[in-house]
Design brief:
A middle domain of Talin 1, 4 strands, 12 helices, mainly alpha, globular, 359 residues, two-stranded antiparallel ribbon
Length: 359
C-alpha cells in the first residue's frame, strides 16, 4: 500500500521527537543546575519547553518549508489534545487536585492567550507583528511567574542527583536531543505531507490530528506517569504550561519568521480555534468545583475529544449528510448534557462548601 511508507515515516518521526525531547530536557536541566539557575526558573522554562520541543521543531520546520497548514494546525491540535486527552486520561488514572495558583493565574492566562490568538488569526493569517507580541507576552509572563514564585514555595520543582550531570555529559545530551529533534521533525513533516497528498485531504487536517497527537506524546506520558505517582500538580501544570508555550513561543516564533505571516485556513479559524477556547472554558467549572478533576470528569474530556475526531473523520470522508446529522446531534443532545453535567458538579461543590462552613 502506498500509504504505509508515509505512516512509517510519521511513526519514526514521532519516536525520534520523543527521544530528542527527553535528551533535550535532561541536558538543559543539568546545565542550568550546574550554572546555579534557580529551580523555579528551570521548571517554568526548560521543563515546559522540553515537553513542547517536538511541537516547536515540527512547526518551525514546517514554517521554513512553507507548510503553514501543518505549523498552525500542530499548535492548535496539540492544545486541544493536551486539555481533552492528556488531562482526561491522567484523571482516569488518578483524580487530579488542581493547585490554586493554576486556577487563579495560569488557566485564565491560557484562556486569554487562546482567545487572543483566535482573534489574531481571524483575518486568515497570523502576521509577524502578532508573533512578536506573543513573544513579548511570553517574556513578561516568565518574569511575572518568577517574581511571584516565592508566594508558593512548595510548588518549586525538585531535581535529584541524577539530573546533575557533569557539563560535558549535559552538553552531549543537549546536542543529541537537538539532532534527534531536527531529524525527527523533518521525517514527521515529510510523512505528514505525503499522507495528506495520498489521502487527498488538507495538510491542516493531518496536522491537527496525527501530527498534533504525535508531538503531544511527551506531555501525555509525563502527565499520566505523574498522576500515577500521585504528582497531580505536575500532571496539570505540565498541560497548562505546555499550552502556554505552544501559543506564545512556538506560534510566536513561527509567525515572526514567516515573512508574509502564517496562513490560518478557514476551518482552523472557524472550527478548531473555537474548540480550543471552548475546551478550556469547559475545564473552568471542573477546576473551580473543589479544585479536583474527578475520574468521571476525565472521562467526559476524553469523550469530547472522541466527538471532535468523529467530526474530523466525517468531514474528511465527505459524508455531508452524516456530518450534518452528527453535528446536529452534538448541538441538540451532547452540548446540553455537558452543560447540565458541569452545572451539577458545581452545585454539588457549592452544597458541600455550604455544609462545611460554620453558621
Amino acid at each position: 500500500m502506498p500509504f504505509l511508507p508515509s505512516l512509517l515515516e510519521i511513526i519514526v518521526g514521532i519516536l525520534l521527537l520523543f527521544g530528542g525531547g527527553e535528551f533535550f530536557v535532561a541536558g538543559s536541566v543539568a546545565i542550568a543546575l550546574r550554572l546555579g539557575i534557580p529551580q523555579i526558573v528551570i521548571g517554568l522554562t526548560l521543563v515546559s519547553l522540553g515537553t513542547s520541543a517536538p511541537e516547536l521543531f515540527v512547526s518551525m520546520i514546517s514554517t521554513v518549508q512553507e507548510n503553514d497548514g501543518i505549523a498552525v494546525a500542530n499548535v492548535v491540535g496539540s492544545n486541544i489534545f493536551n486539555v481533552l486527552v492528556v488531562l482526561g486520561l491522567s484523571a482516569l488514572v488518578m483524580p487530579l487536585r488542581v493547585k490554586s495558583r493554576l486556577v487563579r493565574r495560569d488557566v485564565p492566562l491560557l484562556l486569554a492567550v487562546s482567545m487572543a490568538v483566535w482573534g489574531m488569526a481571524a483575518g486568515g493569517r497570523v502576521y509577524w507583528q502578532a508573533g512578536l507580541a506573543l513573544l513579548m507576552a511570553l517574556v513578561i509572563n516568565i518574569v511575572w511567574e518568577c517574581r511571584t514564585a516565592s508566594e508558593t514555595p512548595d510548588e518549586a520543582d525538585d531535581f535529584d542527583e541524577a539530573d546533575r550531570s557533569s557539563i560535558p555529559v549535559a552538553v552531549l545530551k543537549l546536542a543529541a536531543g537537538l539532532v534527534l529533534l531536527v531529524i525527527g521533525s523533518q521525517v514527521l513533516v515529510r510523512g505528514a505531507e505525503a499522507a495528506a497528498a495520498l489521502l487527498q485531504i488538507p495538510e491542516s487536517v493531518v496536522g491537527i490530528t496525527i501530527v498534533a497527537a504525535g508531538t503531544s506524546m511527551p506531555e501525555l506520558v509525563t502527565s499520566v506517569v505523574a498522576a500515577n505517582r500521585g504528582k497531580a500538580d505536575i500532571a496539570v501544570g505540565n498541560v497548562v504550561g505546555s499550552n502556554i508555550i505552544n501559543l506564545m513561543l512556538i506560534l510566536g516564533l513561527c509567525a515572526t519568521f514567516s515573512g508574509e505571516g502564517l496562513l490560518a485556513e478557514p476551518n482552523l479559524v472557524n472550527r478548531d480555534m473555537p474548540i480550543m477556547v471552548v475546551s478550556i472554558l469547559a475545564c473552568l467549572p471542573i477546576f473551580w468545583s473543589g479544585g479536583v478533576i474527578k475520574r468521571r470528569e476525565g472521562l467526559l474530556l476524553v469523550a469530547l475529544y472522541v466527538l471532535y475526531l468523529g467530526d474530523q473523520l466525517l468531514e474528511v470522508t465527505g459524508a455531508g449528510g452524516l456530518l450534518f446529522n452528527f453535528r446536529a446531534a452534538v448541538l441538540v443532545l451532547g452540548l446540553p448534557l455537558v452543560m447540565v453535567f458541569l452545572a451539577w458538579e458545581s452545585l454539588l461543590w457549592f452544597r458541600a462548601r455550604k455544609a462545611q462552613s460554620p453558621n
